[in-house]
Amino acid sequence: DAGVIQSPRHEVTEMGQEVTLRCKPISGHNSLFWYRQTMMRGLELLIYFNNNVPIDDSGMPEDRFSAKMPNASFSTLKIQPSEPRDSAVYFCASTLGRGSSYNEQFFGPGTRLTVL
Amino acid sequence: AQKVTQAQTEISVVEKEDVTLDCVYETRDTTYYLFWYKQPPSGELVFLIRRNSFDEQNEISGRYSWNFQKSTSSFNFTITASQVVDSAVYFCALSEASGGGADGLTFGKGTHLIIQP
Questions:
Q1: pLDDT of B5-52, one tens digit each?
Q2: Residue B49, strand partner residues
Q3: CB pairs under 8 A between A and B
Q4: What's residue A99's pLDDT?
Q5: Which chain B residues contact residue A28 at CB under 8 A?
Q6: pLDDT tens-digit profile of A30-88?
Q7: Nearest CB to A104: which of B47, B91, B100?
Q8: CA B58 distance to own-chain centroid
Q9: pLDDT value at position A100?
Q10: For chain A, which terminal residue's Cβ has fewer other Cβ atoms within 10 angstroms, N or C?
Q11: CA A54 to CA A67: how far, in whole Å?
C-alpha cells in the first residue's frame, strides 16, 4: 500500500497568497484528519472527516482556513490569505473508523509550509 | 476536555540502558484509546501502539513495552536495551470514542529521546 500521500512536501509562499495542501488517504480508510505541528503549540488537530463529512472543525484557527473532502480519496486544506504565523508542518492522517484497527491513524509525510 | 501530559521534555541515556517515557492523561469518558507515536529526525510520524480503556494488560513488542494503569491515568513506554536508532521524539496521544466513527487525537508535547553511543 502506498500509505497516505501529501503534496506538496514543501511550500514557500509570501504573505497574502493562497496555499492549498493536498492529501490522498490510504485506500479503504473512511476517516481523514488534518493536523498542524509547530514548536510552540506541538501537534494539534485542525479538522477531521468521517465518510467525507466534516465532523469537528473546532481546531481550525480562523476563517482563513478551510478544508474539503469531495470524495473518499482526496482532501484539501486551504489557507487564504496566508500569514507568517501559519508556517508549520501540516500532516494528514487516515484510519478505519471501525473494526479491530479502529482509529489507528497513519500519517502522511507532512507538508512543510513557510510563509514569508 | 481531554489532556495528555508528557512531563519529560528531553531524556538522554547511553546506549543499552533502559529508559521509560512517562505519559499521564485526563479524560471524562469511560471509553477511550491511548496511543504512542515515534517521530524520528526525518519527521514522519510512526504509529507504535494503540490501547483501549478496557484493556489494562501490559504489552511487549521486542524491546518495547507499555504499562497502562487506569488507577493513575498513566500509559508509560519503556525501551529496553536502547539503541541509537531509538533516538526520536515520542508522542503519547488520546482519543475518546464517540461511537459515530473515528476521533481526532490529542497529543502530548512529546519527549525527545537521545541515545548516545
A1: 999 999 999 999 999 999 999 999 888 999 999 999 999 999 999 998
A2: B36
A3: 65
A4: 67
A5: none
A6: 999 999 999 999 999 999 999 999 999 999 988 999 999 999 999 999 999 999 999 99
A7: B47
A8: 13
A9: 65
A10: N
A11: 9
Per the CB < 8 A criterion, the answer to whether B92 and B75 are in contact is: yes
Work out the pLDDT band at B86, boundaries 50, 70, 90.
very high
Identify whether the C-beta of residue B33 lies closer than 8 Å to the C-beta of residue A103.
Answer: yes
Name the grid cell of B2. 481531554
CB B110 within 8 A of CB B38: no
Amino acid identity of residue B87, one-letter, is S
Cα–Cα distance measured from residue B91 to residue B39, given in angstroms and rounded to the nearest whole number: 8
DSSP A7-51: E-SEEEE-TT--EEEEEEPPTT--EEEEEEEETTTEEEEEEEEET
Q: Do B43 and A104 touch (CB under 8 A)?
A: no
